[in-house]
From TrEMBL:
InterPro entries: Bact_metal-bind_prot9, ZnuA, ZnuA-like
Record-linked Pfam families: ZnuA (PF01297)
Record's keyword annotation contains Aminoacyl-tRNA synthetase: no
Annotated GO MF terms: metal ion binding
Keyword annotations from UniProtKB, A to Z: Disulfide bond, Ion transport, Metal-binding, Periplasm, Signal, Transport, Zinc, Zinc transport
Organism: Candidatus Photodesmus blepharonis
Primary subcellular site in the record, as a coarse category: periplasm
Protein name: High-affinity zinc uptake system protein ZnuA
Entry's family note: Belongs to the bacterial solute-binding protein 9 family.
């Protein structure tokens, strides 16, 4: 009997250590749910954007070893779609929002990707409600795989939701004084965050970070900046700021830097909440100048 119990414990211990998440924000959220039980791994390292990424041989080996893979889906990580088609124990988070990667075709075309990205914002972790929905799905999947730790997963989920509510209220108070101040962002990634805190988003340089904006877009932004309609323009930590800097020449607009994936934050207990707070601080500091 002891041998059976021990074998079962070892089996899950090995399985739990092979939870692979696609990107850092998903890893951060998953860590809050597996706290005290296991530590999820992540496929993309700190300063790598999922936009335009190509899998390496070492990535394929990690995917093969994983017992559970948690990813968003086509809109965010199209490079994973083909290899995950026939794998079991996949948690595709986009399905929670009415999307399913396997139903899409010609996913390598820029026009299709841009259309999907514009209509279905994949940056769910920047919004309170979609993040809670995702955390619940992760917790329930883990309970299904590891019923012995059901109580711990559900307790972690409850604590996660409570902490997120608290942080959201704090951020709401912090950003209230700058709600009317307009700004531009480099990448159209902040819809959830902007809706949650009623921010005055004027526009963006590009939908897809790896694709340069057209002349019409740049001219429109330039005109708005010279007429003092925007208080701030934000670049992103993962991409060269040259485009943003060249666009603000001759204007009095402030420049800030946003880090939507928490590339400068170590993954540990509470790191997801530090990502949100860091983003709020960046908005507040630039818009308050």
């Amino acid at each position: 009997m002891l041998a059976i119990v021990t074998a079962s414990a070892i089996s899950f211990a090995l399985r739990a250590q092979n939870i692979l998440t696609s990107i850092k924000p998903i890893q951060m959220i998953t860590l809050e749910i597996t706290k005290g039980i296991s530590t999820p791994d992540v496929l993309l390292s700190n300063n790598i954007s999922p936009h335009g990424y190509s899998l390496r041989p070492s990535d394929l080996k990690r995917i093969e070893r994983a017992k559970l893979i948690i990813w968003y889906g086509h809109n965010l990580e199209p490079f994973l779609e083909k290899i995950l088609l026939k794998r079991r124990n996949i948690l595709e988070l986009s399905e929670l929002f009415g999307l399913k990667s396997q139903e899409k075709h010609h996913v390598d075309k820029f026009s299709d990707y841009e259309h999907d990205h514009k209509n279905h914002d994949p940056h769910f972790w920047l919004g309170k409600k979609p993040t809670i929905r995702v955390a619940q799905a992760i917790a329930y999947k883990l309970v299904e795989m590891d019923p012995e730790n059901k109580v711990r997963y559900l307790r972690n989920l409850s604590n996660f939701v409570d902490t997120l509510e608290h942080i959201s209220a704090k951020i709401d108070s912090q950003l209230k004084p700058v709600r009317e101040k307009g700004y531009y962002v480099f990448h159209d990634a902040y819809k959830y965050f902007e809706k949650d805190y009623a921010l005055n988003h004027l526009g963006y340089f590009t939908i897809i970070p790896d694709r340069k904006p057209g002349a019409k877009t740049l001219m429109s932004i330039r005109t708005a900046l010279l007429s003092n309609k925007a208080k701030c323009v934000f670049s992103e930590l993962q991409f060269p700021p040259s485009l943003v800097h060249s666009s603000i020449k001759g204007s009095a607009v402030n420049v800030g830097v946003l880090d939507p994936i928490g590339s400068s934050i170590n993954v540990e207990n509470g790191s997801y909440f530090r990502l949100l707070q860091s983003l709020s601080d960046s908005f507040s500091e630039c818009l308050m100048k």
